[in-house]
Structure formats: C-alpha cells, structure tokens
C-alpha cells in the first residue's frame, strides 16, 4: 500500500491555490464587437503563460463551435450562452486557473449572474470593460460584421440594431478604451490591477 499519499476528502479552493502556487479567478472581458476583447484576451493569456501562470481563454466564437453549438442568437439562447460561459469559467477559476472570457455579453443581468456564481463560490470575478467608440469599432470591422449589420444581413447586431443595445458596465473593476490604449497597454492595465490586488506577482512565486 502506498504510504506517501495523503487522502483529502475535498480540497478547498484556497488549498488548491496554495498547493499549486497559482491563483484561480475569472477575468471577464465585455464590450462591443471589434472593441478588442479577443485581441487583448489572447495577448493577456500569452503574457500570463510566459510568466508561468496557468491561464485559459474562453472566446465567443470558439465556444459556439463546440460547447454552445446548439445555441442560436435568439434572446433566450444569448442568455443561455452567457450562463454556460459563467459556469465553465467558474470551474476553471475553481481549478486554480486564470480564466479569461471574451464575449460581447451586452446585458448587465447576464454579467451580474456570472459574477454572482463566482461570488457565491468565493471566487474572484474581475469585470473588464473593453470600450471603444462605436464608429471606431465600425471602422475596424475585422470580421465584416458591422457592414453586414448595416446591410440588414445580420439582424439584432449589438450597438447597431434598435433591439440590441449594449448595456455599459456601471462599475467595472477595470476600464480600457482601446481607441486610446494599445493592445500592450490594455494588457498592462489588467495586469497592474491584479498586481495591486495581490493576485499576481512578477516574477511568479512558485514555492
Ligand atoms: N488597442 C487595441 N486593443 C485591441 N484591439 C485593437 C486595438 N487597436 C486596434 N485593434 C484591432 O481591433 C480589432 C479588434 O478585434 P477583436 O476580434 O479583438 O474584437 P472583439 O472585441 O473580440 O470582437 P467580437 O465581439 O466580434 O469577437 C483587431 O483587428 C485589433 O487588431
Ligand atoms: Mg472576439
């Protein structure tokens, strides 16, 4: 019989983070299409991984290819989309991973639900408003979605269609205006916040 194995009925989140020397939290990026959520999320994920932090990005488009491929863009399915992302991010955060989500998530109620899931589990939830003036977003239009929305090919496009408003976060932990900050500066703003809160150190302390 193995003698060096310690049985623990259920590791708590804090025990897990202590053992792994690794924080678990969710960084929730919200903002208009083309505001820069995926771009900043990718750069942030790489920055954390290069500094030995375990991080994983949950991105709008990618998740809709898999976990949420059964969902449409109807109002009910949009709510369900964000609810599932909130639950999955919570699992990653609980496992001591830095979960980074990049979804438009236009409705305050949906974001608040994701926050509550984390709060109830004692997990840190950091809402990041990736803001940009809509005319700048529309000029970027990397996926050609604004053009399609203007042509009426896409209905209910956030920020463009009357029935699809973007509800701005009232009190996000972090605010970035990507018409004023570069991608690198956007990442730095998030990292600075987490360092100030004592969540991250550079270099990482791993013993
Ligand atoms: N400061 C900046 N921060 C982030 N992206 C920027 C910035 N300046 C220019 N960009 C460009 O803006 C575009 C943002 O596209 P991105 O796919 O990241 O947006 P998104 O918010 O994820 O949109 P969607 O909701 O449609 O997925 C990219 O082409 C990126 O290169
Ligand atoms: Mg994106």
UniProtKB/TrEMBL annotation:
Origin superkingdom: Eukaryota
InterPro entries registered for this protein in UniProt: APS, APS_kinase_dom, P-loop_NTPase
Organism of provenance: Orbilia blumenaviensis
Pathway(s) it belongs to: Sulfur metabolism; hydrogen sulfide biosynthesis; sulfite from sulfate: step 2/3
Protein name (record): Adenylyl-sulfate kinase
GO terms under biological process: cysteine biosynthetic process; sulfate assimilation
Keyword terms: Amino-acid biosynthesis, ATP-binding, Cysteine biosynthesis, Kinase, Nucleotide-binding, Transferase
Top-rank EC class of the record's enzyme: transferase
EC number(s) recorded for this UniProt protein: 2.7.1.25
Reaction(s) catalysed by this chain's protein: adenosine 5'-phosphosulfate + ATP = 3'-phosphoadenylyl sulfate + ADP + H(+)
Biological role stated in the UniProt entry: Catalyzes the synthesis of activated sulfate.
Annotated family: Belongs to the APS kinase family.
Residue intervals of the APS kinase domain: 24-177
GO molecular function, one term: adenylylsulfate kinase activity
